[in-house]
UniProtKB/TrEMBL annotation:
Protein name: Response regulator receiver domain-containing protein
Organism name: Altererythrobacter xiamenensis
Residue(s) carrying 4-aspartylphosphate: D66
SMART domains on file: REC
Response regulatory domain segment(s): 16-130
Domain of life (superkingdom): Bacteria
GO biological process, one term: phosphorelay signal transduction system
Coiled-coil ranges from the UniProt annotation: none
PROSITE patterns: RESPONSE_REGULATORY
Amino acid sequence: MRKTQARKSSNDMPRHVMVVEDDAVLGMDIEQILRAAGVEEVSICATAACTLEQLREQRPDAMIIDVHLADIDEGWGIAEMVDVVGGKPPQIIFQTGTPQDIPENVAKLGTVLAKPYAPEELIGLLRGKRKTGFLAALRRD
């Protein structure tokens, strides 16, 4: 897991974003996009195991999760695990080249962003309403 500090921002971006992506080049591209948009802290995890370990230590404000990782083919399981470790659930954005394959009940856990996408789409989602999905709705009840 790689963690970097970006410049402090006064905009409405989340302070800390965790990127769960096993493609190192894509992970670095996303990090650059986030830093340029003013995200203060970016954590990158390439595996579900790394992600779970980091979630035990820190709670990001948002997560960008690749649905198909090298060690787990259903990356949405990570979103389900977020609730297990407790705390305030982060905003979740799933990124995938096959959005039609995500079950409807899983899509409710966050926002689905179809690859390829423009950087502005990702930033728009992070700046928009903090959709935290089904798990957050359950916790409020």
